Amino acid sequence: MAVKISPLHCLDVSGPIPAHLARSNIEETLRTAILDGRLPCGTAIRQEALATLFGVSRMPVREALRQLEAQGLLHVVQYKGAVVAPLIADDSLQTYELRLLLEAQAIRLSVPLLTEEDLEAADGHIEALEVETDFGKIGLLNRQFHQALYCKAPNKKLLALVEAGLIEEERFLRFNLEHMNLGKLAQDDHRALLRHARARNVEMCIAELEQHLQRGVNAITQYLKSQKPKQP
């Protein structure tokens, strides 16, 4: 009789975790595994199995799963518990519309306050993206580039919402780059965003951001069309 392998066997867990770091450690470990595809869509994530694996109580596990649900990476399904969310949800296009509103406001608040150090950090992420080939690391660098431009916005709740949107995008960004060859276009957009930020041209930054996010909308639309069953 074949032994059923737990879907959590792919997680890298080393040694006991200090109690105060348990929630963040579990959240980051699961997020990384979801984003890089080790935990594919539809995988059920059992609280008790996670608690045993990490050697913790269920409380930090529940908190980590709530955070991942808020980031759109997990869904809670009746009788199954937490399940890895689909690559593209029914409301993904609405998510991009919301991202434009939130990130445009972050640009308005942040760009006038950016320091040369912030701009150099953004430029460094672009340079790192030029040579990185690991799609998981590319997603992180993309998020860090955008956050470098938004970091001076004083509204912390706004920045938390922006970060959640960027994290939600990472899985589909990987799909875009791997299957649709959008890497160069994204880099061109990043360089234009940084150029306008250096010039403190907020409105041009927002216009460039809109074009940048529209590429994501187009890719999602194309993906959803490809998933529709063909008419006989």
Automatic annotation (TrEMBL):
Pfam families: FCD, GntR. It comes from the Bacteria. One of its GO terms (molecular function) is DNA binding. InterPro entries: GntR_C, TF_FadR/GntR_C, Tscrpt_reg_HTH_GntR, WH-like_DNA-bd_sf, WH_DNA-bd_sf. Keywords: DNA-binding, Transcription, Transcription regulation. Residues 20-87 form the HTH gntR-type domain. Gene3D superfamilies: GntR ligand-binding domain-like, Winged helix-like DNA-binding domain superfamily/Winged helix DNA-binding domain. This is GntR family transcriptional regulator. It comes from Pseudomonas saxonica.
